[in-house]
Write the structure tokens for this entry.
Amino acid sequence: MSTAPVPRLLDGKVALVTGAGDGIGRTIALRYAAEGAKVVVSDLNDQTGRKTVELIEGEGGQAVYAHADVRRAEDHAGLIEAAKSSFGRLDVACNNAGISGEFAPVGELSDPQWQAVIDVNLTGVFLGMRAQINAMLPTGGGAIVNISSILGQVGMEQAAPYTAAKHGVLGLTRAAAWEYGQRGIRVNAVGPAFINTQLVNALPPDALDELRSRHALGRFGETSEVAALVAWLSSDQASFATGAYYPIDGGYLAR
């Protein structure tokens, strides 16, 4: 007696992930593919971006790589073209690309230090959303997930540009959800706390211990845990979810 295969969350969907060369972005791209999506993998680092494609194809998935600097509107247009030319359409997008920037108090931040983070983490998300929305509207809609942060809800000393940008991502998410909800596009934001990535693990041991203690679970999150939430929000199972912020923070914001 045979049983029917369990449907995957994103069977038949075409998805795009920015900043997919490593860390959270790579894991999201891999999860999208595991859930049945054809994936456009985007990054500024061509080597790591192509490696993500190799990993997807090694697991039997379909993916293409497209170089993009998220600060450039023309690069976002190129990502849409890559999705259409390779797979015919765009159904799902995850705006993940971001940088931490340099750490300094507000009174000591230079103009370039501020602008560098805003350009990538906020303007980059806006440019992505604009291109993605206009690609989704002709085919009936889709789902966009923006990667914010716990710092989209709270502040952190010496991280004003990052905090401001991530707060701004929530505003963009909420506005777009209202603008396009009745036209078939859902827009949500995910807010990770500290996740077990190369960037976090490069911190000094005493800093790591202190940061772990800020999470009710007493540990950092895993990229796979973030990707699982993103995949659900990107799927039709989340059909009534839009305009919302979903922390995945091990209890960081519970105190």
